[in-house]
Amino acid sequence: MYSPQSLLARQIPPLFLRRSLTDRLPPRMRDRADRWLEIVDLLLEIRDPRVLRAMAPAGLNGLVLRAGDRGAPTSVRATHPVRFDWAYSRDQPELARLYERGKLAQWNGATDLAWSTSVDPLDPEKPLIPRDFLDLAPLAKLGIRLDVAEKRRFDASLAAWMLSQFLHGEQGALFAAAQITESVPGFDAKLYGASQVVDEARHVEVFHRYMHTKLGKLYTINDNLHVVIESLTSDARWDMKFLGMQIMVEGLALGAFGTLYKNTREPLLKSLLRMVILDEARHVHYGIVGLRAHLAQLSDRERHEREEWACEVAMLMRNRFLAYEVFEEWFEGRVPRATWRQLVTDSAGMKDFRRTMFKRLVPNLRALGLIGPRVRSRYAEAGLMVFYEGGASSELGGAELVAELDAA
Ligand SMILES: [Fe+2]
Ligand SMILES: [Fe+2]
């Protein structure tokens, strides 16, 4: 029996043939064809039909209809049951402890950051990202060379794009945390979830304020990020929200924040990221504590579905944040979209980002028992098993992580 993907694959010419056909099209049509072929490639990558089914509606909205790209508000139908606990049983001591830590670690986004700092995104002494984060030298063979001032403006665009995605991701985390608070069983878990709602609101506040008052630029949400957020928001299963947001998206965010924290020379952004990282590490730990016992009592079939789902999402997230919005602004019509994709994928900044992201994510999935023999070979093929023996998040994860980043 064929899966939907294998049937689709039989109808589509091999990659090299498709690329040689599209290369003959005029630039705009070539790039449009490249976008559609990329969506097909993404579909073919998903091996588990259950994951494909679960993500299909969000994929249609995000990738085909490009719902987030219009900049207009979008609505997602939520279907999860809201679980009330009239016994108020306080029987999850680890989460109760985390809730106390969360309360003590609260900070005020309006007063705990030095908002009076003047920020010039083009200042060569305090660059938002390092000059070699994305090396544009390979574009010289297409006759494209940016002078020093243009490259500074380009780097500022790229940094604004990254921070825009952080802001959109934080909005997703805010609503996911609210949904988890409603749907998670156990009163300690609900209390902690509520403290995360406040954390995420603060993250939206500080990223938005930085974008609005210091950079003056906001990009629309990346299509793939929209797919992930919509699929989590609409999935009725609380543990899938938990796994998707607390482990996968928060893990991704920690990697991205850590990479930028390490690299930026702009002091206000650095201190903002430091504060956010300390909160986010607590959120990932909540995911591990909240899921560990639950996953252990699932049937093998249910656990395998989550194992496959986490693996698919990890693979999807690996190479999917490619700053096409920056490409459209700077190079559309002059550089093939496929060339840009290769450039970003191979860039020093993106490689560092992937390494920082999976260094924590893989051990966290291992700690949850979600890297079993069925998926281990796929992590190995993707070169991710090198992180398997690494340390999973702990209660002190945030402080450890910041110390590690400072030492790097
Ligand atoms: Fe956050
Ligand atoms: Fe978070």
List keywords for this structure.
disordered N terminus; 16 helices; mainly alpha; Ribonucleotide Reductase, subunit A; about 400 residues; about 65% helix; binds fe (ii) ion
If you consult CATH, what is the topology? Ribonucleotide Reductase, subunit A
* CATH homologous superfamily annotation: Ribonucleotide Reductase, subunit A
Helical segment count: 16
Total tally of structural domains: 1
* Main pleated-sheet profile: none
- Structural class by SSE content: mainly alpha
**Percent helix:** 55-70%
The H-and-E topology, N to C, reads as: HHHHHHHHHHHHHHHH
- Parts with pLDDT < 50 across at least 5 consecutive residues: 1-7
Spatial separation of the terminal alpha carbons: 50 Å
CATH first level: Mainly Alpha
Shape: globular
Bound molecules: fe (ii) ion
How does this structure look, described?
With 408 residues, the chain is mainly α. It has a single domain, classed as Ribonucleotide Reductase, subunit A, CATH 1.10.620. Helices cover 66% and strands 0% of the residues. It has helices at residues 4-11, 15-22, 27-45, 49-64, 93-104, 148-183, 187-215, 223-234, 238-263, 267-296, 300-318, 324-330, 337-345, 348-367, 373-381, 397-407. Helix 7 packs antiparallel against helix 10 and helix 8 (223-234) packs antiparallel against helix 9 (238-263). The chain is globular, with a radius of gyration of 21 Å. The termini are far apart. Mean pLDDT is 86; it is low at 1-7. The protein binds fe (ii) ion (FE2) (2 copies). Residues 173, 200, 250, 280, 283 line the site of one fe (ii) ion. One fe (ii) ion binds at residues 173, 200, 250, 280, 283.
